[in-house]
Amino acid sequence: MAEAADRGRFVEGFSAAVFCNLVGLLVAVAMMSSVIGGSALGGFGIVQLLWLIPVWRSYRKQGKTENAKGVLLVVGITILLNAACWGSVRKYGISG
Asked: Of 32, 38, 49, 70, which sees the most CB atoms within 10 A?
């Protein structure tokens, strides 16, 4: 009987993507005084794609589709949270 291929684990991909986002967020906050840091933090939902697309592609290449799904879920959640926060800032004029 043939063994089923290892498709990975959803939680591992999710955790890896959350970790990458936390590191990226810490770097953006540390660089806040520079123009690049402020831009990276402001558009974090889109900027995260710079490090998460290679992670997603790596999982896909290895055949770990469940891990890749976890990464995509984190991408979606981060983009939605970023959009909601910026929507609040624009609507209510909230400033830091």
From this structure: 70
